[in-house]
């Protein structure tokens, strides 16, 4: 079977845009230095990464901050472009999700649902059809008519996840969104994710929550220092991951 | 189609957000150019005694379309920076953001045309059938022109943050270099050709001819169209070349 997402020897580096975004003055006065730096100094985000994900799998990317997890998601979403290697995605990707990304503080809950729904790939009529469902899921009650700048962060997260819950993706990309709201709402989110899984949606998530990985995922890819350190079943990877950090933790204490 | 839905949803958002906090809402889209018209009238007519007949409608017929240009271009550098979360997280055609800004300003401009009509009626000048061809034609040319320049400055500003300051300054220059508060004929003969180098000059002249004389200034419309097409091509090429980097520079 053809994999739904396939990375072959993918590398991604970012140039240091500092000299350019630092302004014209900076660029002109340091021109030779700037050109040299732009060419030489690169921030390597991913180094020669290969993996493939099959349809219906639920895969977690774990690793420390800055390891390259979000870059991987960005590449799958098509927001970023690799410098080397090949990225093949054979399905409709729901965009790289971050709760509240694309929300506008001055608009009400309902207005934001309508905007976000379309941004995330639904048609306008579809969003209208699902509006009730989304509002129910969010449990925001009367607040749904208020501008979202009045929301607490938990309420924002709930609104965000409720829109995601209504999508019909083939590949769902999730960046740190499960740890939202209170315990009960988190449970509800996990349940919705399980339902997505049963519908055959491929789920790819980046998270620091080990328990989410264990509860939800079949497989985990551990990225360390911009390379894949381990790609096994979720339990195996989590076990090694915890062991690794306990060791480095005790070492740093000595 | 999803593309149109995306455009509609984003435009609706812009329209809603723009006047959310203002008690007078849409009235501002009319009040703003009218306020400028009043101050220019005071300065150029009452103080400097400019020799133009029916100066109020002369002013309004050039200033209203100019306000559209100024609004669309003034926010150009911020179009992408202001939407960083969207660009970093969602893969959609980024040039839509520019298109939405310009469409929104166009709607506000079209909504202000009745004011031009009322003012003109005070001077016994009335709309004609030519307007039905002229307004859409000029609006489309101006839409392409504004979109191109908005997208160009938006793209450039991601890589050179100084663009924002440059645009602010240039727009003030362009206002005085475009025959908005004065007649094109007042420009000394030897500098007249320079007006052709200003993409907005022909456009403003065309609008004025249309409103005041109900005439289609075909040569000026042609020049404006050439500018619009040329800038559109330059912008599209630049955008295509650089758009894949947007998410990483933001």
Going across the biggest sheet of chain A, name each strand in turn. 5-6-7-3-8-9
**Largest sheet composition of chain A:** 6 strands, mixed
In what range is the share of β-strand residues of chain A? Answer: 15-25%
Structural class of chain B: mainly alpha
Shape of chain A: globular
Tell me the count of domains of chain B.
1
Q: What is the overall number of helices of chain A?
A: 10
Oligomer: heterodimer
Work out the helicity level of chain B: over 70%
Overview of the structural elements:
The complex is a heterodimer of chains A (254) and B (250). Chain A is of the alpha/beta class. Chain A has a domain at 99-168. Chain A contains ten helices and nine strands. A six-stranded mixed β-sheet of chain A has the order 5-6-7-3-8-9, with helices on both faces. The model of chain A has no long low-confidence stretch (mean pLDDT 84). By secondary structure, chain B is an all-alpha fold. Chain B has one domain. Chain B is 76% helix and 0% strand. Chain B is built from twelve helices and no strands. Chain B has helices at residues 2-18, 27-47, 55-74, 78-81, 84-89, 95-122, 130-159, 163-177, 189-192, 199-213, 218-242, 246-249. Chain B starts with a helix and ends with a helix. At the A-B interface, helix 2, strand 5 and helix 5 of A face helix 1, helix 5 and helix 12 of B.
Question: How would you describe this structure in keywords?
Answer:
heterodimer, A: 254 residues, alpha/beta, six-stranded mixed sheet, three-stranded antiparallel sheet, 10 helices, 9 strands, globular, B: 250 residues, mainly alpha
